Structures
1.
Amino acid sequence: MSLSASHLLFPVPHSQIKTGFTTAHAVDVPSIHQVHLSDSALGVHKVSSGTTHTLVRPPVPPSTDSDEHTWDALFPAGSVNPGNKSAPPGGFGFYVHGPPEFARALREEAPREVLMSYAVMFEDGWEWRKGGKLPGICKRPSLAACLPLSVV
């Protein structure tokens, strides 16, 4: 039995999800809002200087949806991460507020838990020991202050 995108990206009982957002086209969860993969729709800010996160089509389309896009992280020779001062910047880094209704829910409801999931693809020959960190939640004094998410 194969799991749906909804269950892979939101691996908790969907009845427990109060609000959320996704850029995945194949997700069908009532409390999850579809958001366009764009800086403005996701509230991207504090982008690491010298890096890009260009929209590209995935090399292996995850679905028949011809409008599917992803961010492309570039790691030039010798790069390690976006903030390394002794090597060329590699990857990308930024913060995400999420769409306005999601950011508002975090501020007003002060949730105790936040779930973040994503899918990544690495090219053949990727050297794991040289990569930067993967996306995660930025911890602040209160969970409401956890947004923005730190995406690297």
Note: The longest strand covers residues 20-22.
2.
Amino acid sequence: MVCANVSGTHTLPLLVIGKSKKPRCFKNVSCLPTLYKAQKSAWMNSALFSEWYTKDFIPNVKKLREREGKTGKVLPILDNAPCHPPVEILNAIDDDFSVMYLPPNVTALVQPMDQGVIEKLKRIYRKQVLRRLFLAENDKESVVAFAKKLNMKDACYMLAEAWDSLERQNLKNAWNKLWPDLEGEQDSNDDHREEITDLVQSIPGFQECDEEDVETWLASDAEDCGFQMLNDDEIVTSVQEESDPVDDETDEDEDNIINESSKGPSSSDAFAALETAMEWYEQQSECFPTQLLLLKRIRDLAAKKRRCTM
């Protein structure tokens, strides 16, 4: 799930929903670049949305407003999806927040995030998947191995990077239909199609794919609304499932086997690796001081933890 303000200056971490509460690929992981929640069918429902709204959205926005010294009400604008709780329930949570739902069946017409934001996010994400595949060994066996190794943690990182790479004007211009008087900015026309096509054609066995094939793939989930349309019986079942426990530890992909005894790299291993990374990066023409300093801070953290274990 995506969320951003009107000016495009503030984005919330993406909410990723998977089927298992603790995927094995999250073992020893204490922090992710996205939010992660679990639901048996990996669909958004009212319980997950309420939890996100209460524990993530409101605190995040309050911290921003405190930093900027802003006061007054916050107006979250939501599409009228069945997975969203009634407006009365949400508006009773915090007096500083007043939710407004868009009219039914107008999501594709005016909902800001549906004005190219989600589509561009998906395209950048898929481009990143292809890049990772391209960097693997260029043979058909490696393509199969790559698909088996790709897990939820990989997806969270690539999604977060794709979300972070969206330009401010992409987010701001998405509000033009809902707020015509909002002063827009020149938007990038890059739909990444040509670059994605080149990446696809570079993969063994896919050289004959053309832009039409790529566009079909890119649009394959265009109708996926992120929640399940339910009849009355399914609604009852869904409500019951919301209170059922989700599996604590299962694999999203049964072929993705991880060594259960692995404790991850030690602080000494991390320090040595970061030393090597810094030495390599500072020799590159693409080296940026801010990124080099970030590597240094992470290396210093590893050094501190290494001393504590001696």
Note: The mean pLDDT is 85.
